[in-house]
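Quick question, first post here. What does this chain look like in 3D?
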Amino acid sequence: MAKLWQSPILEESFALIDAEFGAHDFTPEQYAVVRRVIHSTADFEFKQLVSFGAGAIAAGLAHLAQGGPIIVDVTMVRQGVVSMVERTFQNPLLTAVTVGDPPEAGRTRTETGLLRCLQQYPEALVVVGNAPTALMALCDRIQSAPAAATPALVIGAPVGFVAVEASKVRLAQTSVPQIRVEGRKGGSPAAAAILNALLVLAWEQQP
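> Answer (accepted):
Ran it through. Tokens below.
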């Protein structure tokens, strides 16, 4: 499969990142993910923050290549990935925050929407780039009702201070395939970059 179109600026940016990145133990696929996150954030600290669960990339690539559904938590993540989704496998793309209105009692709109999306697609690839409460709710559902939440992959990258680190620790305690951005950092650009990198990898690995 031919490579997706890349602009000269993107190629130059990747070359600069390659020159500065230094020694690492990432596989080529993991490096492609981390490099795209650094490109989107201009922050080399992500070299130490992006964590890959066992089999996570393989699970994500298989799901995407088969046209499996994607659930993202907020509109900013959707805006960051929709173009790549449309150019590759045209996976169904749901945005939790737009599905969760009105919210259930005791839950945020994003939590509510994520759980509603899972009712439709329990095996979706789930991307959380903003809302730690949604990531917590997802982990609760995975552990309390595993038949109702069996995501192909979870990208856990909420950003901020309140409940952010706790939500990532909670995700790490589950057995679901996962890619996490550790600590307080993350955000919609990082989460979208991880998914875009997986889409590119899956596309370019097609026969």
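The first helix runs from residue 8 to 21.
The chain has a mean pLDDT of 96.
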